[in-house]
Amino acid sequence: MTRPLYDRHRAVLPDWLALYYRQPIEITHGEGRHVWDADGNKYLDFFGGILTTMTAHALPEVTKAVAEQAGRIIHSSTLYLNRQMVELAERIAQLSGIPDARVFFTTSGTEANDTALLLATAYRGSSQILAMRNSYHGRSFSAVGITGNHAWSPTGLSPLQTLYVHGGVRARGPYAHLSDSQFIEACVADLEDLLGHTRNVAALIAEPIQGVGGFTSPPDGLYAAFREVLDRHGILWITDEVQTGWGRTGDHFWGWQAHGRSGPPDLLTFAKGIGNGMSIGGVVARAEVMNCLDSNSISTFGGSPVTMAAGLANLSYVLEHDLQGNARRVGGLLIERLRAICAQLPVVREVRGRGLMAGIELVHPGTDRANPEAAAAVLEAAREGGLLIGKGGGHDTSVLRIAPPLTLTVAEAEEGAAILERALRTV
To answer: What pLDDT score does 1 carry?
Structure first.
């Protein structure tokens, strides 16, 4: 049934618009942690539309809020007062940990990061940005310009001057052999050295756990140590929480809190899971940073009544049902199960992650070379077994990305791990 649709897709959409699977599937509906395709096949969803269906498919509380709001008014723009937008902004500002916080809503994580870069460069009067190697921050012109992953950066042109810092990848690179404390020390020394060759840097932008980069992360405390250096130079810290926010890591509500010793970030960007599939992104910043722009601005679609209603209902569900705690408990069990499975598989280099955010890096057995062919094969085999996962990584897309909705049960975690074990054994 999907072949005619695939042919139509290829005839009218860009060649660079990626599709999963040799025979792409059309997902028609979902419920809880499961989705169905146009051929009637049922799948356990361990990717959630790229970490976006964060809570559950067809969550009644969210669908009810969307339907009721759509029945009243769908759109008004930010030129008018919007009660739902104010209420969601109040809740996010309080949860962010940023003092005297202001919130600006966008329609995506890309746009959120774009806005954060605008604010930081305007506030500091500088177009120089520090970013992490292996990073990904979106597909806009400015976001591509700071992305440190060549597979997702189609042009070297940029309105910004970007300098890349060590530290986002713990198990590869020149400092991989060091202990955690030595790793942090070396990365801080690299940052200090880099700043000795620059002028007036605006900000460092960093994902606490790199998403597209393959769920890699530094030791806890790295960005706290960076913050001490940044503060001496007046440089802002932007934490990109598009994939790590809302309790997904289990241990913390925000990824930055694993690095919170030196205080909260100056700016925080979010998107994906807060809308549970609705298009919401945004920036939280200290008031003096958020208010630094000296020209008018609006958002036509950011903070729309319908998406704000969805965000309010979804955030309430996350907090009232302690989904952060569920991510910690069930995610911990899932990661340990995956580590036990992969311990005897020579194609697996590392199982890493936190909460319901796990990565399995595949290599050619007996080597340290990335194995994107194996990752593609496991992706196909998992789908055939009834499981949807993702892939990524800064080394030729060789990492399996596992990020189920935060309501995942222990039984579903075991079922998904068993399917994944069979898929991994095919390669």
So the answer is: 62
Strands laid side by side in the 34-37 sheet: 27-31, 34-37, 42-45, 387-388
In the 8-state DSSP scheme, what is residue 261? G
Phi, psi of 337 (to 5 degrees): -65, -45
Contacts 24+ apart (CB under 8 A), 82-90: 82/303, 82/305, 82/308, 84/305, 84/308, 84/309, 84/311, 84/312, 85/303, 85/305, 85/308, 87/308, 87/312, 88/308, 88/311, 88/312, 88/315
Tokens of 3: 């072949």
CB burial readout 307-330, b (16+ within 10 A) else e: bbbbbbbbbebbeeeebbebbbbb
Q: Tokens for 158, please give them.
A: 């940029």
Do 79 and 257 form a contact (C-beta atoms < 8 A)? Answer: no
Average pLDDT of every residue of the chain: 96
Burial 174-183 (b: 16+ CB within 10 A, else e): ebeeeeeeeb
User: pLDDT for 68-99, tens place per residue?
Assistant: 999 999 999 999 999 999 999 999 999 999 99
Torsional sign, CA 359, 362, 363, 369: negative
Return all residues near 314 (Cβ < 8 A) that are at least 6 apart: 54, 55, 59, 61, 62, 273, 274, 275, 276
> How many CB atoms sit inside 10 A of residue 422's CB?
15
Average pLDDT over residues 239-265: 98
Share of the chain above pLDDT 90, in %: 96
For residue 159, give the DSSP letter.
Answer: S
pLDDT band at 353 (very low <50, low <70, confident <90, very high): very high
Strand 42-45 and strand 387-388: pairing? parallel
Cα end-to-end distance, the chain, whole Å: 29
Q: Amino acid identity of 374? A: A
Q: What is the pLDDT of residues 307-330, one digit of tens each?
A: 999 999 999 999 999 999 999 999
- Report residue 140: phi and psi, to 5°: -75, 170
Which residue stretches of 293-409 are H helix?
Answer: 305-320, 323-342, 372-384
d(CA 388, CA 257): 30
Read off the amino acid at residue 408.
L
Q: Where are the beta strands (DSSP E) in 348-398?
A: 348-353, 358-362, 387-388, 390-392
According to DSSP, the residues that pair with 122 across neighbouring strands are: none
